[in-house]
Amino acid sequence: MSAALVKPVLYSYFRSSCSWRVRIALALKGIAYDQEPVNLLKDGGQQFSTEFQAVNPMQQVPALKIDGITLSQSLAIIQYLEETRPNPRLLPQDLKKRAQARMISDHIVSGIQPLQNLTFLKQVGGEKKLEWAQRHITCGFQALEQTLQHTAGRYCIGDEVSMADLCLVPQVYNAERFKVDLAPYPTITRINKSLLELEAFQVSHPCRQPDTPVELRA
Length: 218
Hints:
- The protein has a 4-stranded mixed sheet, covered by helices on one side.
- By secondary structure, it is an alpha+beta fold.
- α1 links the parallel β1 (about 10) and β2.
- The protein contains 9 helices and 4 strands.
- The radius of gyration is 17 Å and the shape is globular.
């Protein structure tokens, strides 16, 4: 069977913000896929299993099997989907706006999320986890709020959903999990609310995944 005819498989964890970004992209582009849950907490972390290491040597989710190849790293996956399945587009046609979408995506993916992910929090340990996460999310959101005041319309870049929005919503979800006060960030809050009204963001939400625990389903 041709690789193009094989349904993609997404290795994902329901609460992984990196996985959520990719789930949103797949939903927006109308790409049907199978999901293979990887529990980051069970059995010491299923991402460390020999089986999953064969899928992604970095032992991280997401990983996407598609078109006969396996991709990891959420932005690399999203940009591959954009280049091979360009409609609807997730990167603006205008080159300046496209650069801004990438800038905001990197701001979140490189500058905020890694500092409060599971790996870092395990290193911090104990009662300091919450304080650590709050401090780094707050620092990142202070800068992000200022940036968005110059780039945003209804969404992060004007009035079209872009890759930046796919990064924003999962990060706001994390901020809420870590009890970050969002009152100082009205632009972030407004955009997040608008995006969560869209079906693609709803069906990809952590509360609606195959591996979502019963008590967290909605």
